[in-house]
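Fold this sequence, please.
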Amino acid sequence: MSILFSGGKSRPYEFVHRGRPPTFEQYPGRGVLLLSPLDTHEELWLAACLEELRVPTALLPLPLAPAKVRLSLGDCLRLEVRGQEIPVQRLGAARYLCNLECPRPPGISQVEHDFDVSEWRTSLWTLRENLPIFWLNDPYRAGVSRLGVLELARSLGLRTPRTLVTNDPLTARGFRERVGPCVVKRVGHSFPTTPQGDIFPIFTRRLTLSDLAAPRLSACPVLIQEEIPKRCEYRVFVVGDEILPFRLKVGEALDWRELGAFAVERQPVRLSEDLEDRLRRLVRAYGLVYAALDLLEDRQGAIYFLELNPNGTYEFCDSLVRPRITERLARLLAAACR
């Protein structure tokens, strides 16, 4: 078992699958498809905003509720959601949210569930190929390598922490001796599920000397990064050409998500024009329309780029700006349907 599974305070996320009926029969014109493994608050808010704009919308709760979704590809292209057939010729835009793993429904094994999820995601890529519409974000661009984005950030003149991906204890120990105190993170973006089928998040934690000596370090590669003493962190949202930065006061916490996003003191701020321009260029280089970026300010005031997430959550900052982030996303989708 990887060292990331030990010594943390992580607890399973709790989500309730609510559902929302399509509105293509209610509103005319071209509409939006919202594809998400879960009905998060963000997806429900986005559907409500699109309804206010009188844009027909269908939310696909895949693959949690397969009985509520019927998809056919190949000989015919047909999509049905909650008993309503979605006229695919009327689709103008889609949002693809894939940042969360899918909890395992009761009654099936983890192996069966993993296979089902893989088949659904492959089928959704095929659906994307058959729908030449505006995607926010395009599924083909949703996979962003943590190391790759750090290298690109450095090429754009952004500061980044020294980073290593390894499962070799000797290499990890040498890195720790060179750079000093380190933190350890996941290499990828996926979370495991518990035997009960709940999503189990793994947060950033400090790399200890006992970790370096433990056989479990070699179980799988991990991302090791120099620990930078911080004054604060930033969560920066890029929506189209807009840059929306928020300062997060997290104290000594290594990972603010573990505190609970709504428990973190946060406020909208402005960054320097030069820094905002570099962040905008970074997101554009990946062909993304939306992204959430994490930054860190050290105790001397230097700002480091940490990570880019094409589907990073924004709900804990949504009400702090006007228009809300949800409204800005809804307007982008609605504009593509005109």
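The chain has eight helices and 16 strands. The chain has three domains: 3-11+160-226, 31-142, 230-310.
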